[in-house]
From TrEMBL, chain A:
The keyword Signal applies. This is Peptide ABC transporter substrate-binding protein. It comes from Thalassospira profundimaris. One of its GO terms (molecular function) is peptide transmembrane transporter activity. It is found in: Periplasm. It holds the Pfam family SBP_bac_5. Residues 100-447 form the Solute-binding protein family domain. Gene3D superfamilies: Dipeptide-binding Protein, Domain 1, Dipeptide-binding Protein, Domain 3, Periplasmic binding protein-like II.
Automatic annotation (TrEMBL), chain B:
Residues 115-320 form the ABC transmembrane type-1 domain. Signal peptide: none annotated. One of its GO terms (molecular function) is dipeptide transmembrane transporter activity. Gene3D superfamilies: MetI-like. This is ABC transporter permease. Keywords: Cell membrane, Membrane, Transmembrane, Transmembrane helix, Transport. It comes from Thalassospira profundimaris. It is found in: Cell membrane. It comes from the Bacteria.
């Protein structure tokens, strides 16, 4: 199947496209009527999940230092575990990225988005048989934000000043308006626990589709189905086994020999080999993570916008995606947002490799001599190769880039955010506001391009409290342009999440929220035979 | 003659004359304790010197200054390094290795399981590789410079020349993926049956056997050959001693020391050095456990792992020396 048709099929499976629409669009994409009809049948059949069976996942990212406590969850493994046994108040929509209800049924902001009221779902049972109450919700959020909090979500929730139970509803008061608050509550750390998890944060008692059966940190975790799950559209298998497999080759061997049904983090360099296995299907999802080359806007010679533009035009993005990501990614446009974010500004022209423009700006900048770029393979997989590739394309524009390979250990403390020109990686954030506030606001700790623009800061804060979506989108458009045309960010590519399943499982949803179908892989997959 | 030290020295000398082995073991044990203490200081200083402390590395990208401060306060990381070290040492002297900073669970409890897994794998690898290596070494000597000797040499050298992860991958591809006869991944867990466990470790055991075989085999071969060509073996033969008696009385005692040394070294490697094999086969042993702990600077776990590894080395080396001394009367009475 070609990509667009595969995408249509997955939308049929997700109840987002009807027969007429699917066949029309598939034929427009080059399919015959007969083929499109038969394909529709298959995709629609895939809607009927089969129940039962034992699902096995081989996952990268587990460590013997992992704990069940969702506040301290930081690995890919515990991320997917949390999704199995617990629920958050809000989830993000798999394809639009907008906030959708989970344990919170609905929500209302006040006029300036600084006070939010959430209705909590009734009749939901925890694994220990007790019923979910507003008290549990308040205490959970307290545990993640109180003065003793060691939670990974503390940074996200920093602006919450009041957490109250008002007549059975959750009322959150913020220090400043934030139109994105519901999405922030979809953070995977914020699993609602009985009594807020104060008594035993590692109990693993939640409201999720699976109960924890056994957990050995850094080895494996097993789950059994929660028979009293409040949702029927998830958790199709009887039991789940998650095995920590940190070696990429081991994961591929386990999948192709049928020992596991799913693996994450398929190496783009070897995905071609894995594809040859007859029983394997590659699952790629557009991601928000991006590989970047960052310049400090306030440090010579990068304090000259013409030099920065020259270096941006000297980047061959298509080749980067092809060579460094093996084609599993999308080109970037020098601002840290792509179409997976809500309110993405589509109308911005794509910057392309243009040696003439690069040479023009380079000459205009008056810079003489070479430019020093520091890199290491810990910056992102293939960073050193990417730097060499960049050196070649820049040479055609008459720009001489000198590459310095730095040691991997200590790269994040000695080079990144310290040296004026280096390679780096950013994971995505749930909202545009979060991404910009983390790394492009003048006062941000991680302003790794030293981007100081008071106009930008002002729009960012205004947009945060703006409830009118059209206006907000306009603001994000302006901000993106500022970063793209005056910032220190060269963003050649967004990397896809590359997972793989065996062909006897179905139900994998391309979820733009995060890797592994936003962590919900075990509750979404079912086994066909 | 009123010097009291002289008396002690004389007594020690007498003791050494009468019980040479016990004195040696006692001395070695004393030195081991000192060595282990030095190791603990080195590890502590080493982990401290790594960039980033536990609070920063554990929280990773989601770290906020407040969360970092809370973790530091919780664990007392803001106190001076010497205070923390002696507090830890005080616990260890009383047999308490403390709790893992990351999981909050007692270190000893977690380590028992992982060490058990490592020893389980090492035991089977050793039980196969040591007799095999010594046997093949003897066969090689017997057919010295003839075809069997050459074949043994070439094969074992080829095995040792390949990186262990590569051997592992080859075994996985053939036996797990293509033929589907072996268990993969080799994960073992609580309440797993014995036969299942043995099946799970088949491939990693085979890998380890291939990795350590050549070293021990070649040392056996070399040691026996060098002893057989020495002057006193010729003398034994000339004075009319039978070949078998000559080997038992003269050759074996002299050849055993180097062989035992190499065996000890390889056994220690099997316990402490197999992290790559653990990762490739997804086997939950000590190596991966320590690497995980170092990654987030989980000091109590790193320390405990480090001490166990050091103790294994010291112990095995000591056993090797003792075996060599017991086997060879000449070493029992050093002049």
């Amino acid at each position: 199947m070609t990509d667009p048709i595969k995408h249509f099929a997955s939308r049929v499976t997700a109840h987002e496209m009807n027969r007429r629409e699917f066949i029309g669009r598939s034929m427009a994409a080059g399919l015959t009527l007969a083929a499109a009809t038969s394909l529709y049948g298959k995709a629609a059949m895939a809607q009927e999940p089969k129940r039962g069976g034992h699902l096995k996942l081989g996952l990268q990212g587990g460590s013997s230092t992992d704990v069940i406590d969702p506040a301290k969850s930081s690995s890919q493994f515990t991320f997917a575990m949390n999704r199995n046994w617990g629920d958050t108040l809000v989830e993000s929509h798999p394809s639009s990225g907008l906030a959708v209800p989970s344990l919170a049924e609905s929500w209302e902001p006040n006029a300036d988005a600084s006070v939010w009221t959430f209705k909590i779902r009734k009749g939901v049972e925890f694994h220990d048989g007790s019923e979910l109450t507003i008290d549990d919700v308040v205490k959970t959020l307290n545990r993640h934000t109180d003065e003793k909090s060691e939670s990974g979500a503390l940074g996200v929730l920093g602006s919450i000043k009041g957490i109250e139970n008002k007549g059975g509803d959750l009322v959150l008061t913020l220090s400043e308006g934030n139109a994105d608050l519901p999405l922030l509550l979809s953070d995977y750390h914020l699993v609602i626990q009985p009594g807020g998890g104060y008594d035993n944060p590692n109990a693993g008692i939640g409201t999720g589709p699976f109960k924890i059966d056994n957990f050995e940190a850094g080895v494996r975790a097993t789950f059994v189905k929660n028979e009293n799950d409040w949702r029927t559209d998830r958790g199709f298998v009887d039991s789940v086994e998650m095995i920590v497999m940190n070696d990429a080759t081991a994961r591929m061997a386990a999948l192709s020999s049928g020992q596991v049904h799913f693996i994450n983090r398929v190496d783009p360099k070897t995905v071609g080999l894995l594809k040859r296995a007859p029983n394997v299907e590659i699952q790629t999802t557009s991601g928000r993570g991006h590989y970047v080359f960052i310049m400090h806007c306030n440090t010579a010679p990068f304090d000259n916008n013409d030099l920065r533009l020259a270096l941006k035009y000297a980047m061959d993005r298509e080749t980067m995606v092809e060579k460094i990501l093996g084609g599993y990614g999308k080109v970037g446009n020098d601002f840290p947002i792509n179409e997976t974010y809500a309110l993405f500004p589509e109308s911005i022209e794509q910057r392309t490799y243009d040696p003439d423009k690069a040479a023009f700006h380079f000459k205009k900048s008056g810079h003489d001599g070479s430019v020093l770029l520091r890199t290491s393979d810990v910056a992102f997989p293939g960073a050193v190769d990417a730097a060499v590739l960049y050196q070649e394309t820049a040479k055609k524009a008459g720009i001489d880039i000198e590459i310095k390979r730095e040691p991997g250990d200590g790269y994040w403390s000695n080079v990144w955010n310290v040296q004026p020109f280096s390679t780096s990686y950013w994971g995505g954030r749930p909202t545009q506001d979060q991404m910009y506030s983390t790394a492009y606001l003048s006062s941000a700790d991680w302003n790794d391009t030293r981007f100081f623009n008071t106009e930008f800061d002002k729009i960012l804060l205004e947009a945060r409290a703006e409830l009118d979506q059209a206006k907000r989108k306009e603001m994000y458009h302006d901000m993106a342009l500022m970063v793209r045309d005056t910032g220190g960010l060269i963003l050649p590519m967004f990397n896809d999440f590359v997972n793989a399943t065996t062909t006897n499982v179905s139900g994998f949803v391309d979820d733009i929220g995060n890797d592994m179908s936003n962590g919900f892989v075990a509750s979404r997959l079912w086994i066909n035979s | 003659m009123a010097n009291p030290l002289a008396g002690v020295r004389a007594a020690r000398h007498r003791l050494k004359e009468t019980h040479p082995l016990s004195v040696l073991i006692a001395e070695r044990l004393g030195l081991s304790v000192l060595l282990l203490w030095a190791v603990s200081v080195l590890i502590f200083a080493g982990v401290e010197a790594l960039p980033g402390d536990f609070a920063e590395t554990y929280l990773g990208q989601s770290a906020t200054p407040q969360a970092i401060a809370n973790i530091r306060e919780d664990l007392g990381l803001d106190r001076p390094i010497t205070t923390r070290y002696f507090e830890w040492l005080g616990g260890v002297v009383q047999g308490d290795f403390g709790n893992s900073w990351a999981s909050g669970a007692p270190v000893s409890e977690q380590i028992t399981k992982r060490l058990g897994n490592s020893l389980f794998l090492a035991f089977f690898a050793a039980a196969i590789s040591v007799p095999l290596a010594v046997g093949l070494g003897m066969v090689a000597v017997h057919y010295r410079n003839r075809i069997p000797d050459r074949v043994i040499n070439v094969l074992s050298l080829a095995a040792i020349s390949l990186p262990e992860f590569f051997i592992g991958y080859i075994l996985i591809v053939f036996f797990a993926v293509q033929m589907g006869v072996a268990t993969f991944p080799s994960t073992v867990y609580d309440n797993m049956g014995w036969s299942e466990r043995l099946g799970a470790i088949a491939l990693p055991t085979a890998t380890l056997v291939m990795v350590v075989l050549a070293h021990m085999m070649r040392m056996t071969r070399a040691a026996i050959i060098s002893v057989m060509s020495s002057a006193y073996m010729e003398t034994a033969e000339l004075k009319g001693l039978g070949a078998f008696k000559a080997i038992v009385k003269h050759a074996a005692p002299n050849a055993i020391a180097p062989i035992v040394n190499v065996v000890a070294l390889n056994l220690a490697y099997l316990v402490v050095g197999v992290v790559v094999v653990e990762v490739v086969f997804v086997y939950p042993g000590m190596g991966q456990y320590m690497v995980d702990a170092v990654t987030v600077r989980d000091m109590p776990v790193v320390q405990a792992c480090g001490l166990i590894f050091a103790a294994v080395y010291i112990l095995l080396n000591m056993v090797a020396d003792i075996v060599a001394i017991v086997a060879n009367p000449r070493l029992r009475h050093p002049r």
